[in-house]
Amino acid sequence: MSAPERIRVLLVDDHAVVRRGLRGFLELLDDIEIVGEAENGRLAVDAARSLRPDVVLMDLLMPVLDGIAATAQLREEQPDLQVVALTSFVEEDRVTAAIEAGASGFLLKDAEADEVAAAIRAAHRGEVRFDPAVARILARRVAQSRTPTAPAPALTDREREVLGLIARGLGNQAIADQLGITERTARTHVSNILGKLDLSSRTQAALWAVEHRIAGSE
Q1: Tens digit of pLDDT for each residue in 90-110?
Q2: pTM for the whole thing?
Q3: Of 187, 20, 54, 206, residue with least CA distance to 124
Q4: Most CB contacts within 10 A, which of 45, 94, 104, 163?
Q5: DSSP readout, 125-157?
Q6: What are the chain's domains?
């Protein structure tokens, strides 16, 4: 029986010591392969074009091209590529910008090594995963949000259910299990939601759900 395909990861940070630390741990894992490194956003975009990673661990504060701009460009060029944002501190504007750029996860650099690995795996499964501090920011946005001035696009009841589960971080298979539908049907619902909302990623859909109070309560 052949070994399962490994998750191809590109490490992007302007500090070599951070890249070494991440590589040192992640290379010990059987299901993750480090395919390359980059020290700024411009080099990250170039590297991703040739290396075709599954997931990019992306520092947000870098010279030449920052992580937010690089994330937006990567997601435009490679829609299936997942980006997990890394930062030393949390600022609401930066969090929102990274999510709107298409980041599918957001971790602080002091996260434990196993949290980083879990975020990579979650991103590869199409799930949304945030550091608890980021989740608190999004929760605040719910509390402070106002009724949108523009009418929300018409979603079916099922699409609203699916959108709520996306906001909770569930991937397609988990959504299917929760609703008793096939994974293919869940994927179709997600695609329809993104089309109706004119969004490019499920992370953006999660943020939209939070802002419009469709945040997937248990």
Answers
A1: 777 787 788 788 888 888 888
A2: 0.72
A3: 54
A4: 104
A5: TT--EE-HHHHHHHHHHHHH----SSPPP---H
A6: 7-139 (3.40.50.2300), 147-211 (1.10.10.10)
